[in-house]
Amino acid sequence: MDRLYTAEATATGARTGEVASSDGRLDVQLSRPAEMGGDGGPGTNPEQLFAAGFAACFHSAMRFSLRPLGLSPEALDGSSVTAQVHFLRGEPGDFGLAVDLTGHLPQLDAEQARALMERTHTVCPYSRATRGNVEVGLHVAPVS
């Protein structure tokens, strides 16, 4: 594969420092969540950043999964993807992540939405990068 784009970010101060991209577009403070023994300060954390990236990438990848399923681009009207990233702890020093992705797909019935989520999971770069390393649950939000 050809490299089309490279993102670069540098973190300092671990979970209570900051992270900034080399182009200056991202510059955020980090705080450790209270649930992880931190002060629950106003900054973001690596799990939130990962959730944001995964949700955005997955939602974008959906457009490449429409045609093989016989769906039109209008199928994504009003849609969104929510990613929940779970920080896991096992034995001392043993940490991991799990992810739940929920598609909000109001233009599709439950079967179409499920098929789109599953197909997208095969093409999304984040899904491919985590395959075999991170448990990813796929869910469809009920249409209200």
UniProtKB/TrEMBL annotation:
The alphabetized list of GO BP terms reads: response to oxidative stress
Instruction: List where Low complexity composition bias occurs.
Output: 1-18
Where are the annotated segments for Disordered? 1-26
| Matches recorded under InterPro entries | KH_dom-like_a/b, OHR, OsmC/Ohr_fam, OsmC/Ohrsf
A Pfam family it matches: OsmC
Name the PANTHER family for this protein. ORGANIC HYDROPEROXIDE RESISTANCE PROTEIN-LIKE (PTHR33797:SF2)
Task: Please report which protein family the annotation says this sequence is part of.
Answer: Belongs to the OsmC/Ohr family.
For this protein, the record's NCBIfam families field holds:
organ_hyd_perox (TIGR03561)
User: Which protein, by its recorded name, is this?
Assistant: Peroxiredoxin, Ohr subfamily
Say which species the protein is native to. Geodermatophilus telluris
